[in-house]
Design brief:
262 residues, mainly beta, ten-stranded antiparallel sheet, eight-stranded antiparallel sheet, 4% helix, Jelly Rolls, 18 strands
Length: 262
């Protein structure tokens, strides 16, 4: 089942279905990738939630604007919606609310600028809130943070942080020769929390060809994957893809160095 779903993801890596409706909003700081827009300059800038993004930050967005900043992000939807929302926030007063229809779909932001990954290191961080009512859906495959593109084998490859079996972990997928492998933790802190904000981080290491995922600052046991060819130049996505029908996201960052949860 996961292979079929991943093929749907890969099919979107060319002409990307998107919805760019809405005006640019505040809160985004785009830097090292060369993306335009946002509220300040690259690296070391302070987003409006009071957190600080380190030097080397590619994008840092707390979604405090009334709309998603479409100068920085594409809005990638399939049977879903994605809107800044004041219902709850990890930082500031707003977060990004993702909702997909029953049976699954996509509600993600995608950085407009591709980012080099092969031979380089790419860290990410976001805060996430999952309501208890959708907890049963955590048993099924949902991608949360994705880097995808062609690798040095001239085939599409995916580095991802995802949830399945109620656990948070890492994933690698390659079209040809076909590879579909994941690392889900079997011990704490791997279980995905519900009804509270938590911090998830991912380390997509294109130098050593490794993937690692962290929960609330702690490395998830068994999440490390080794030896898989990363995308050369990656599309970066955050949000919900596939099974999970509702979640909130806040303080999304991609960087060349670890951002952390502070």
């Amino acid at each position: 089942m996961r292979v079929t779903l991943l093929l749907l993801l890969v099919a979107c890596s060319g002409a990307v279905p998107s919805n760019d409706a809405g005006t640019a909003g505040g809160g985004a700081t785009a830097g090292g990738a060369g993306a335009a827009g946002g509220t300040g300059a690259a690296g070391g800038s302070a987003p409006s939630d009071g957190g600080v993004c380190p030097a080397g930050t590619i994008v840092c967005d707390d979604f405090e604007g009334a709309a998603i900043d479409t100068a920085v992000w594409r809005i990638h939807l399939d049977r879903g919606t994605l809107t800044p929302d004041t219902t709850r926030a990890a930082k500031g007063t707003r977060s990004l609310h993702a909702v997909v229809q029953a049976g699954g779909g996509d509600a993600m932001v995608e950085l407009k600028q591709r980012v080099p990954l092969d031979g380089q290191r790419l860290w990410g961080r976001m805060w996430m809130y999952v309501p208890q009512r959708v907890q049963p859906m955590l048993q099924n495959h949902t991608n949360l943070a994705v880097a995808l593109g062609d690798n040095d084998l001239s085939t599409t490859a995916v580095y991802a942080a995802w949830v399945g079996g109620g656990k948070l972990g890492s994933l690698f997928y390659q079209v040809s020769p076909g590879i579909d492998v994941s690392g889900l933790g079997t011990m704490p802190p791997s279980t995905l929390p519900v009804d509270r904000w938590f911090c998830m981080e991912w380390d997509f290491n294109g130098v050593d060809r490794q993937i690692r995922v962290y929960l609330d600052g702690a490395l998830i046991p068994m999440s490390e994957l080794n030896g898989y060819h990363p995308p050369i130049s990656a599309l970066l996505r955050n949000g919900v893809q596939f099974a999970l029908e509702e979640a909130w996201f806040d303080s999304v960052a991609w960087s060349r160095t670890r951002v952390g949860c502070d």
